Amino acid sequence: MEQLINDLKLQIKEALNLEELSLEDFDENAPLFGEEGIGLDSIDILEIIVLLEKNYGIRLANPKEGKAIFQSVKTIAEYVQANRKK
Amino acid sequence: MISVLSTNITSPLGFTTEQNYQAVLTGTSALKHYEGMWGLPEPFAASLFSEEQKAALALDGFTRFESLAIRSVQEALSHIQLDVASSRVVLILSTTKGNVESLDNPDQEGHYFPSKAAQTIAKALGISTMPIVVCNACVSGLSAQLLANNLLSAGLYDYAIVIGAEVQSKFIVSGFQSLKAVSDEPCRPFDIERIGLNLGEAAATIIFAKTSSKESWCLVDGATCNDAFHNISPSPKADGCTKAIEAVMRDRDKSKLATICVHGTATLYNDQMESVAIQKAGLSDIPLSALKGYYGHTMGAAGVLETILTMRATDDGVVLGSKGFTEVGVSGKICISNEILQTNKTSFLKLLSGFGGSNVAALFSKTTDNRQLTTDKKLHKAHTIRLSSEEGKTLTDIYKQQIGDYPKFYKMDILTRLAFVASELLIKDMGETQEEPAIILFNHSSSIVADSQFLRTICDAEDFFPSPSVFVYTLPNITTGEIAIRLHFQGETSFYILPEKDEALMQQILEATLNATNAKSAISGWIDAESDTKFECEISNYIIQD
To answer: Is the pLDDT of residue B79 over 80?
Structure first.
């Protein structure tokens, strides 16, 4: 799980061009949305959906399904672990 | 105020305005379900020309996009006598992606540039003046008409040929699919069960004259306002759209409106936003026409096509039904039906909203209007910022050294980064900003870097992962939207593409715009960027000369 979390952090940082966010400061429990967390927006979530399909073979047709999944890197990792196809 | 001399609609429903009107009047839709089209893995519904129609429209030596545009203008010109070679005639091309298909086609090298397409179209038609391309995302079709109004009202030309055109492709459809915005069923504007938009291809032409007559339709007034909220999501409070409607309808009698021809894309957020704007502007009792159920979203053509259809319908005493609508699914109070209504009124309001946060409202009428907005303001440059890679610094270096507090910089494409950095430095130079300046930018290369980058995400069937965050930046007017968001400016934002940097023409467009609107200042200039190490930009803060 720890490896998966680290992989996801790196993939998200690269896919979303989070240039100023260091992996050390990227807390897997921090909320992805809002000022208190990473501060992602709706386009970022769409890009994470692409990332999940590309790297793990997971297809999420409706971004709304992802509300619970995209709480934090940890919740994404849990979802990936349970649903990954590659 | 300018008047309509002639029109044409060339779409899968017919090649003349009349054929299109009769088809829509009888409830015909061009929307069809497609599976496996262009190798796309997901199905979609769209309004596309058939192979027979494509063959009938094709012109030797021209791309599909250019042929379509030329055919449409030629048909519109066939109804009138106009010396198109005159220096008093200007061609304004409204398109969002133009010849983007040619990026992937070695046989069409160089055709990508929208200004090149506009020059090709102008030359084929015999037009001698420099064409102007309006690339303002989904609002382009109305922006182009407002530009015609500004230029003609300023006395720079006597006639404007406004052509809105779009052809669909793997590029555009996969991009909208990556944004989860496309429905594989015919769209349902404002409906409780709306599930997204359909895309469409068409060309539509309006030929405007400076002089007006009692018999003709007039573009009376228009306004452009940015939400300054988000690049692809409209403001939930409908800030920009409401402001644009109020600017146009201020001191005008709403009871004279036959209809509001809405944008009505059938996405959750657009239709909700428009309903809020309509209620806030006090227009809840005016019947709406949402026409995307017939043609889908024809993007750069939509504003022209839907204006022409609404003129024709109003001439016929009809408010067209909103095909696809059944039950209201928006919170703002609106008056909408899928049935045809009768009307004896002769004015209507046309609305469009689009990516980059732009909202446009325009008033069309067969009656004259005494409200005279055009003034004779002269502008001068108060501050100027020049950035060039020739000075040896990368754009990222300049950002890090002189700005450095906006992490979103790294998410932007190179063109938007350049516009952002230049505007930040300009604002610092200015000290304090005037109230909501118009933001009007020009370039030659459109969004070629982002377009090429997006293309790389879709060209390999084995590695087909269209990137939504790249697709957003395949519209050059996103540059103006990012500046508006950063500075919280809710004034006009526009993006024009020219064959070359023509400072005199840029100044004319700017002055004509400020003279026809309430804007008291502008941030405007030229931006073009190939990479972090190859860019050129000169933008200025213009203020009205005392």
So the answer is: yes
Cβ of B196 under 8 Å from any chain A Cβ?
no
Q: Enumerate residues 6+ apart whose C-beta is below 8 A from B383.
A: B426, B429, B430, B540, B541
CB-closest option in A16, A42, A50 to B233: A42
Q: Closest approach of chain A CAs to the CA of B293, in angstroms?
A: 23
Residue tagged 């069923």 (tokens): B185
Quickly state the pLDDT bin for A86 (edges 50, 70, 90).
confident
Q: With an 8 Å Cβ cutoff, is A53 touching chain B?
A: yes
Tens digit of each residue's pLDDT (9 = 90 or more) over B158-210: 999 999 999 999 999 999 999 999 999 999 999 999 999 999 999 999 999 99
Residues B421-471: tens digit of each pLDDT: 999 999 999 887 677 899 999 999 999 999 999 999 999 999 999 999 999
If you write DSSP's letter for every residue of B322-335 in order, what string do you get?
-TT--SB--SS--B
- Is B546 a residue whose pLDDT tops 70? no
Instruction: Choose among B180, B230, B411: nearest Cβ to A46.
Output: B180
Residues contacting B304, CB < 8 A, separation 6+: B94, B141, B144, B145, B162, B163, B164, B204, B205, B206
- Cα of A4 to nearest chain B Cα, Å: 21
**A62 and B410: CB-CB below 8 Å?**
no
Domain boundaries of chain A, sorted by first residue? 2-83
pLDDT tens digits for range B333-351:
999 999 999 999 999 999 9
pLDDT tens-digit profile of B251-266?
999 999 999 999 999 9
Instruction: Look up the CATH architecture of domain B2-365.
Output: 3-Layer(aba) Sandwich (3.40)
Mean pLDDT to the nearest integer, B130-150:
97
- % of chain B beyond a pLDDT of 90: 91
**Which segments of chain B belong to CATH 3.40.47.10?**
2-365, 379-544
What residues of B are in contact with residue A14 (Cβ under 8 Å)? none
Are B231 and A20 a contacting pair at CB < 8 A? Answer: no
Measured in angstroms, the CA of B237 and the nearest CA of chain A are apart by: 18
Calpha distance B221→B273 (Å, rounded): 22
What CA–CA distance (Å, rounded) separates B107 from B85? Answer: 30
- Interchain CB contact of A62 with B (< 8 Å): yes
- At B265 the three-state DSSP class reads coil
- A2-83 CATH, one of 1.10.3260.10, 3.40.50.2000, 2.40.420.20, 1.10.1200.10: 1.10.1200.10
Q: What does residue B265 show for φ and ψ, rounded to 5 degrees?
A: -75, -15
Chain B nearest-CA distance from A41, in A, is: 10
pLDDT value of position B370 = 61
Q: Do B308 and B291 form a contact (C-beta atoms < 8 A)?
A: no
Q: Is B410 on the interface with A (CB under 8 A)?
A: yes
- Say whether pLDDT at B374 is over 90: no
Instruction: List, as one string, the DSSP characters of B73-132.
Output: HHHHHTTS---TTSTTEEEEEE-SSTTGGGGG-GGGTTTT-HHHHHHHHHHHHT--SPPE
CB–CB contact A46 B468 (8 Å): yes
- Residue of chain B nearest A50, judged by CA positions: B465
Q: Is B468 close to A63, i.e. CB distance below 8 A?
A: no
Candidates B518, B526, B524, B527; CA nearest to B491 is B518
Distance from CA of B193 to the nearest CA of A (A): 15
Domain boundaries B379-544, corresponding CATH code: 3.40.47.10
